[in-house]
Design brief:
With 280 residues, the protein is α+β, with helices and mostly antiparallel strands. It has ten helices and ten strands. A hairpin with a 3-residue loop joins strand 6 and strand 7.
């Protein structure tokens, strides 16, 4: 059972400091406890109820959805991007990962997607791909609900960490995912022909999914009561060189939040803390 005993250690490295986050929704319950399973199922029902209130359905996608999913991707993305996801890719997601989609009940039209691929890594990674919402449904908090629903599906497949990448410059997505969903950025990646990205991760347990959401008032208090350069660092969210250098520091910094431009900050900034501050 040593392997199981080591699992929480990797996940704890992605729990943000309590002093900057909202209180978690769930109490600590062992993953093998029936109460844990009940909480997961109840939370999943809450997501389904919210989606239904927007006159949509949410469910894992099947082979019958392939044509509608591909049609959505071609509406949502430039053609050269949409073509990267084929019917074969969708089969691979279903067979070796999962996918969840939002649909209009009457027409069966797909208006939201997220896909996952299970990876045979030490931390049982579930890698996220093509989280997207139809433009006509933006502003309804559907991206958050679709992402969290996907997290629960990954948990059911015993994945421990959800990972992905977000392009530097996609400020709206970065703000939502870092502040409101609870992702942590732990690395820089340049991909030829695609651009520059930050690597993101979030623990797949009830604690990780509910205790990483940023509390704005607590965050401001943290900034005012801690020392910049020692307890935290701030780097411009569009400065590729500064972001890359941040992740090369020996303190192993992780980006935990994004601050929008305001009177005090003329440009959006990432706030990062050293690894020693995680789960503090």
């Amino acid at each position: 059972m040593r392997k199981g005993a080591e699992a929480p250690l990797e996940q704890d490295q992605y729990i943000k400091p309590k002093g900057i986050c909202q209180e978690p929704m769930f109490k600590e319950v062992p993953t093998f406890d029936k109460a844990y399973t009940d909480q997961v199922h109840e939370w999943r029902k809450q997501f389904e109820t919210y989606i239904a209130s927007k006159q949509l359905t949410i469910a894992p996608f099947t082979d019958e959805d392939t044509e509608a999913v591909i049609a959505f991707l071609h509406r949502r993305y430039p053609q050269h991007v949409a073509q990267e996801t084929s019917a074969f890719n969708l089969f691979m997601y279903r067979e070796y990962g999962h996918g969840a989609i939002l649909k209009e009940p009457g027409s069966g039209k797909v208006v939201g997607t997220v896909f996952e691929m299970s990876m045979n890594t030490a931390d049982k990674t579930s890698f996220t791909h093509r989280l997207a919402i139809d433009a006509s449904y933006e502003g309804k908090n559907l991206g958050y609900h679709l992402m969290m629903y996907s997290c629960l599906l990954a948990m059911e497949k015993v994945s421990m960490i959800k990972r992905g990448i977000i392009q530097i410059g996609n400020l709206r997505s970065l703000h939502i995912n870092l502040n409101k969903v609870g992702w942590v950025a732990d690395g820089f990646e340049h991909i030829s022909t695609l651009g520059d990205f930050v690597r993101i991760a979030i623990p797949l347990n009830l604690r990780g999914l509910t205790s990483n959401v940023i509390d704005q008032e607590k965050l401001m208090q943290f900034i005012h009561t801690h020392q910049e350069g020692k307890d935290y660092r701030m780097v411009p969210a569009m400065d590729v060189e500064a972001i890359q250098s941040l992740f090369q520091l020996p303190e192993r910094y992780k980006i935990v939040s994004m601050l929008k431009a305001d009177t005090y900050r003329p440009e959006p900034m990432f706030l990062a803390v050293p690894n020693a501050f995680m789960q503090a």
